[in-house]
Each structure stands twice: as C-alpha cells, then as structure tokens.
Design goal:
The complex is a heterodimer of chains A (687) and B (121). Chain A has 5 domains: 123 residues, HPT domain (Four Helix Bundle (Hemerythrin (Met), subunit A)); 99 residues, ACT domain (Alpha-Beta Plaits), CATH 3.30.70.260; 57 residues, Orthogonal Bundle (Helix Hairpins); 172 residues, Histidine kinase-like ATPase, C-terminal domain (Heat Shock Protein 90, 2-Layer Sandwich); 130 residues, Beta Barrel (OB fold (Dihydrolipoamide Acetyltransferase, E2P)). Chain A contains 22 helices and 21 strands. In chain A, 45% of the residues lie in helices and 22% in strands. In chain A, a hairpin with a 2-residue loop joins strand 12 and strand 13. The two termini of chain A are 38 Å apart. By secondary structure, chain B is of the alpha/beta class. The model of chain B has no long low-confidence stretch (mean pLDDT 88). Chain B has a single domain, classed as Rossmann fold. The chains are: A alpha+beta (687), B alpha/beta (121). Chains A and B meet through helix 1, helix 2 and helix 6 of A and helix 1, strand 4, strand 5 and helix 5 of B.
Chain lengths: 687, 121
C-alpha cells in the first residue's frame, strides 16, 4: 500500500527531526535570544505537524499545534523563551516520540494534556481554535443558466495563470458558450505581450450551482473581476425570460435604459443601431445574442427531452449514410483545394461554407452510429454466472461506464475479445475461495469491467483482484515453449508482454473455459485490427488489469499525410509523436545503422522508400515521423511531411489481402490515392 | 513527453508523497529541499510547474517564488504553494510574490492532482 510507504517515510523523518529538535532546544537553553535557533525549532515543529497530519497522525498534529504556535510567537518577538518552556518542549519531544510510534495515543490525559495546557496558556489563552470546517457545499441545485463576466487584471499572466485552462474547466460544468471581448486590445506598437487585454463573457447552463463556478476561479479571485448572475431557470415554469437583447444589455450595464430607449425609437435592428451609434462594442452585442440563443436552445432541448422520440432505422442504411459522408468529405477536400488554387474570393467563401457544413454533417452522422457499450456489458453477467458455477469460484462482476459510446462496428467486433479476456481473468486470475481466504482476501473475487472516454479514444479495462501474473511461472513456461533462452530473467512487465506472444498459454491443464488454443496473441491481433492497443499490468498476489484502447470510430480517422517521391502515405495520427529531420550528417553519425539520436534517446527508423521499393532520387534532407508502438519509439523516414488529413478509410479489396504494411487507402483532394500505413504491423514485421 | 514539476519541501516525507503521486500520473518530478537547492537544481532546465512549501531553511518559499518570477524561463509557469492552515497573511504574501495558487496542508494525493490538473492542464 502506498499510504504505508509514506507513513514509514514520515516515521523515519520524524525521528531525525526530533533528534535535531532536541539538539536545538538544548542550545537554545544557553542562548535564548538566538533567532536562528528559534526559527529552527519552529520549522521542526511545523514540519512534524504538517507532515504528520498528511499521513494520518492527527493526534500528533493536534498536540504539536500549540507548541508550534508558541514558537511562532517567539519568532515574532511577542514571547520570550523561558527555562520552563524549554523544559516542557523537551518533555514534548518524548510525547511526540510515543505518538509517532503509536498513532492511537492522544493528548487527552497525563503528561501530554498538561503540556498542551502549558503551551496554550503561553498564548494568553488565545490559542486560535481550529477554524470551523467549511460550510457544507450548497446542495445540488437545479438546472440554471449563469452569465459569468470574467475580467482578468492585466498582469494575470505573471502569476502563472492559464486563462485557457480556466475556460476549459468552466466548459466542463455544463453547456457553455464563451464570447471574448477584444475591444481593449491596443494597437500593435502599444501592445505589451505579457499583459492580458481581453475579457470574456461565459454563458453556462449547469446544475452544479454557483459555488462550482466560483471554485473554478478560486486561485484568481483577487486577480480579476468576476460577476456571476443567474439569468434563466428551467424548473418547469418559464421563470425568467431573457428574450430581449436590449434587456440583457441594460441589465449588464453595457448601456443605460434611457440611451437604449432613445435609440429604440428609430426603427432598425437594435443590434446594428447600437453598434452604428458606437453605444456598445460589437462583441457586447455578440455576447448578448449568444446568451439569447443559448437560453433558447437549452429550452428547446429541455422540451425535446421531455417528449423524446426515436425511430428505428436499419443499420445498413446507416452504413450507407456513413459511406456517402465519407465520399462527401473527399469531394469537399477537392473543392477546397481547387478553390485555393483558383484563388477566387467568391469560390473560396463557398468552399469554406461547404467545409464547415461537411464537418458538422460528418460529426453528426458518426454520432448516430454511436451506441452505448452497456448492451455488450450486460451479456457478460450471464457468462460470469455460468463460469462461477462450473469452476466453483465466487465472482462479483462490476461494470462501470456502461453509457460510454462507441461506434457500432467497433462494439460488434469487441464482443469476442472481451468474452475471451473475461474468461481468462476468471480462469487464470481469480483463485478458488479457500485459496483466497488463506491469502487474506474476501472469498468472493471481483471482476471490474469499465469503459470511459480518454481523448479521442475509449479505454476499456478488465480488472480482477486475483492472484496476478507470476513472472517466474511465465518464465518457466516460456522456456518450456522455447520462446526465451533459459538464462533470461523476466521483469513483471516483460512477463506480461510474453503472455501476448504467439504460442503462449499458461493454463496448466486445458480446461473447457480457456486454454482452447486461442491465445492472448489472437485477442491482441483482433484489437489491433480495430486500430486499438492492448496492455496488461499485473501485480503478483494483487490482481491483473487488462487495458484496451480503441478509437471512437473506424470510418474516418485523423492522419498525418506524408510523401515519398510522388507517392502519398498516411500514418494514423494516434501513433505519431513528433516529426524530425534526417540530415546526411545524422546518417553519417550512425555508421550505417538505421538509428538516430533524439534528445539523447536512440530511435530506430524504417525507410519507407526501401520498404515499398520506391525508386527515385533521395532528397538531401529527409523527414522522420517518430511514432510510439507498444511503448517503443520507431521512426518512419519519408521525403516530406505535408500535414494532418481527415482520412476517410477505404478498404483495399481482396486482391491486396496479402499486402503487408498497408491497412487501407484514402482519396486525397486532388483525386490521388494515399496508402494508410499499418505502423504496428510494419514494426512487428521488421522486429 | 511528461511535464516536469519541481517539488520543493524540507520534509522528505511530503516530497516523497508528492513525487509518488505525480510520477504515477506521468509527470516528471525534480525534488529540492529548500529554495537555494531548488534554484541550483533547475538552472538551465525546463520546468513546467513548481510546488513549493513556504517554511524552509536557507531560502523560504516566498523568496523562491520571487526569484523564479525574475527569471524569464519561469515567469509564466504555474507555481503552487503549500500552506498549513489557511494562513491568510501567508497566502496573500505568496500571491503578491507571484504564486498561482495554494494547497492547504494536510492534503490528499487527489487534491494535489486536482490542483496540478487545474493549473497545468
């Protein structure tokens, strides 16, 4: 347990501190005016208290508090060191020693209580009582739209504050729109790049209450002006209707009512007039309009949710739709490219609009295909129940994150690997009830199946609290199977990797649950076919965690477009770490080996030109795309890196089944074809 | 690439806890036992964030924060101070020196992580 390590470290540290403390106290006895010594004593007490309370020595912390305060007063010159004080401090050291050795001892009686009273009395009875615990959090409130006006002071950056992070944090609280007001940004020659000139209006609909918003700004309260105003509630009745933009501006103090009414008498769209007249800045109007729109949307959504309807559509119709959107993305890329080449303003404008619409359409279509993974999870309850009967093991299956959404096709293909992994965990991982009992565990083993989003992928974990993977057992088996040499020693991590090697199976007897020839390597390959990764971590005696990382969708991925000679390739952006140059000097330095030094690390690389047999002149400076595969860094050498590319994946057809190193193709804006590089397969092939 | 966090505290057990908690989350941690040690250890190094105690021998946390803010490389990085109780005067002093935020001791690993994520992203 990690907490125990820390406790142990504290006990050792406290021992050292106490020795120092006693020494300092005895010196202080001779020179009571030495401020350095006083500071030393104070710091020692301070550390014992601070660290003590961190690691659960609450009684100790409570006891030391009084002494610390007394020495703080001495430090400030409000109290003089007396013989009695030193005497009692030394006695306190002994009490502290006991309390460190046994954290259950408290200071309610005996010597400790007397000492406590003595030090409390020194502070003139004014020992500040510990502050009352903070008020209990505001109860969960109902859905409310807040207007947050956030005006950072100009020097906020010099405090290491990242405004972007604050805005992101706010956005996590609920439905949120952010409008920036850049009116105060000065002209370039007057601009000081270290200052913050922008302020923001944030319109947020959340059910977490105002305190949650205040919490976000807790560190910057003094460095900015924040006004939080609830502007709409959604508790059934349409309470506060902020439909009129003029009202919003008046309420926020952007304009006075009289001014507004004077302008209103002229009949034009209010926003335009206000800006024309210079009464308010354009961004203030934008903010007000956003607010209006936001509230309307939330209301619409709310009423929609109440009367939620759905229709059933055949899934092949959806697949067809996704195909069409894929084609559309390709055509749109062509349009953008053509527009850029012709450089006609009118055409460019259309191209941009089409691009925006196509992206929205794409995201929307993809979201239709998303299904919660829960439907798959629920099937496993039965599996676990049956297995527990057959094997005589007691098992609890816990599922988390059943609502996590994944592409339908991914979910379908995930079923078999998951069945296999859960079987494995139950069969190899969990122990029999008696064995668990003697190991000091609960008789019932737990298997946790969890899913959650992490970035643009989904992380699925199968966790058991069983016996874990025994590196020694893995080693013996691997030697038996001829996978490793007899002299090889294995770390826990390497053992886990070996389990994933082809031809490995640790089950001592072939049971009818697992060990039927389908090894973990097959599972791993299945996951890799879904562009995912599989990882195992395990602690002997504690259990095993199997992590699957899967992309949200298979139809369109983010890729990095690169070029060798006149052939385009795409590397999935998910595996790309960075791009670096490969100069003739680098090649000379590596003496013919395909490796390069990247900031001190040695990274091997693969030349795509050689791999795909492209015959053409090699440019002087080549590029290396560094990827991370199975935790190792591998570079791919190419002529040039073009940039990121929304890759609509096209399968290559049966004829190309035997082609290795390429997992598909994509059509570029100009109609040419780019091959999608299967970095994982290439890497394993070379290895 | 893991972000680099400098942990400054004269208490070895707190340093250990900070390091343990942060390295588990993929951050890289440089440890220093006081302000002087901290400045020496990071000379010429890239540091993404600092977590410092206030009461330390040789050079205290407030002075360290001031020193760091004087250097261009550390002018805009988040600096979090560890305070005991809610000593408001110390907190204000720290903020005036340029601290980004604070954590009140005792704190739990999750609280530390929460604050690191909040200011470092």
């Amino acid at each position: 347990m990690s907490a125990d390590i820390h406790k142990q470290a504290f006990v050792t540290e406290a021992g050292e501190l106490l020795e120092e403390l006693e020494q300092s106290l005895m010196e202080l006895e001779n020179t009571p005016d030495d401020s350095d010594l006083v500071a030393k004593v104070f710091r020692a007490m301070h550390t014992i208290k601070g660290s003590g309370s961190m690691f659960g020595f609450d009684n100790l912390a409570a006891f030391v508090h009084g002494i610390e305060t007394a020495y703080d007063l001495v430090r400030e010159g409000k109290l003089a060191v007396t013989q009695e004080m030193i005497e009692n401090s030394l006695k306190s050291c002994d009490v502290i020693k006991e309390m460190v050795a046994d954290e259950t001892i408290d200071s309610s009686g005996g010597v400790a209580a007397a000492l406590k009273n003595f030090f409390a009395a020194l502070q003139g009875g004014g020992a500040s009582a510990a502050k009352p615990a903070e008020k209990a959090r505001e109860r969960k409130s109902s859905l409310t739209t807040f207007r947050v006006q956030f005006k950072p002071h100009e020097d906020i950056f010099t405090r290491g504050v990242n405004v972007q992070l604050l805005l992101n944090e706010i956005a996590e609280l609920g439905e949120c729109k952010v409008i920036a007001h850049p009116e105060n940004v000065p002209y370039l020659d007057e601009l000081e790049s270290e200052k913050c000139y922008v302020n923001w209006d944030i319109i947020l609909t959340t059910d977490k209450g105002e305190n949650a918003i205040r919490d976000v700004f807790i560190f910057v309260e003094d460095d900015c002006d924040i006004t939080i105003t609830p502007v709409a509630f959604y508790d059934g009745e349409s309470a506060d209707d902020h439909e009129r933009i003029g009202e919003i501006l008046v309420e926020k103090g952007d304009i006075s009512r009289i001014e507004l009414e004077a302008i209103l008498s002229e009949k034009k769209r209010l926003g335009e007039i206000l800006v024309e007249k210079g009464a308010v800045a354009p961004s203030a109007i934008d903010a007000a309009l956003e607010e209006q729109k936001h509230i309307r949307e939330i209301k619409a959504k709310k009423s929609e949710a109440e009367g939620m309807t759905s229709i059933r559509v055949q899934s092949d119709k959806l697949d067809f739709l996704v195909d069409l959107v894929g084609e559309l993305v390709t055509v749109q890329a062509r349009l953008s490219q053509t527009a850029a080449r012709k450089n006609e303003p009118e055409l460019l404008k259309i191209a941009e609009d089409v691009e925006r619409l196509v992206w929205d359409l794409r995201d929307n279509t993809m979201s239709i295909r998303m299904l919660p993974i829960g439907s798959t999870f629920s099937k496993f309850n039965r599996l676990v129940r049956d297995l527990s009967h057959t094997l005589g093991k007691k098992i609890d299956l816990v599922t988390e994150g059943a609502e996590t959404e994944l592409d339908k096709t991914v979910i379908e293909k995930l079923n078999d690997p998951l069945v296999h992994l859960i079987r494995n965990s139950i069969d190899h991982g969990l122990e029999m009830p008696e064995e668990r009992k003697s190991a000091g565990k609960k008789e019932t083993g737990t298997i946790t199946l969890s899913a959650r989003h992490s970035g643009d992928s989904v992380l699925i974990q199968i966790t058991d609290d069983g016996r874990g993977i025994d590196p020694e057992k893995v080693r013996r088996k691997a030697i038996e199977k001829g996978l490793i040499a007899e002299t090889v020693e294995l770390t826990a991590k390497e053992a886990c990797e070996l389990i994933l090697a082809p031809g490995f199976s640790t089950a001592e007897a072939v049971s009818n649950i697992s060990g039927r020839g389908v090894g973990m390597d097959v599972v791993k390959r299945n996951i890799e076919a879904l562009k995912g990764t599989l990882d195992i971590t395990s602690e002997k005696g504690k259990g095993t965690v199997i992590s699957l990382k899967l992309p949200l969708t298979l139809a369109i991925i983010d890729g990095l477009l690169i070029k060798v000679s006149d052939q385009f390739f795409i590397i999935p952006l998910a595996v790309v770490e960075e791009c670096i140059e490969l100069t003739p000097k680098d090649i000379a330095n590596s003496h013919g080996r395909s490796i390069i030094q990247v900031r001190g690390d040695i990274v091997p690389y693969i030349k795509l030109r050689e791999l795909f047999g492209i015959r053409s002149e090699v440019p002087e400076i080549q590029q290396i795309v560094v990827t991370e595969i199975d935790g190792r860094r591998v570079g791919f050498v190419t002529d040039s890196v073009i940039g990121d590319h929304q890759t609509v994946i096209k399968s290559l057809g049966k004829i190309f089944k035997e082609v290795h190193g390429v997992s598909g193709a994509s059509i570029l804006g100009d109609g040419s074809v780019a091959l999608i590089i299967d970095a994982v397969k290439i890497y394993h092939g070379i290895e | 690439m893991g972000k680099i966090i400098l942990s400054v505290d004269d208490s070895a057990s707190i340093r250990q806890m900070v390091k343990f908690t942060l390295t588990k989350e993929g951050y890289e941690v440089i440890e220093a036992s006081d302000g002087v040690d901290a400045l020496a250890k990071i000379t010429g190094k890239k540091v993404d964030m600092v977590v410092t105690d206030l009461n330390m021998p040789n050079m205290d946390g407030i002075t360290l924060i001031k020193e760091l803010r004087k250097q261009a490389a550390y002018k805009f990085i988040p600096i979090i101070m560890l305070t005991t109780e809610s000593q408001d005067s110390k907190k204000l002093e720290g903020k005036a020196a340029g601290a980004t935020g604070w954590i009140v001791k005792p704190f739990k690993p999750e609280q530390l992580l929460g604050v690191v994520k909040k200011v470092l992203g």
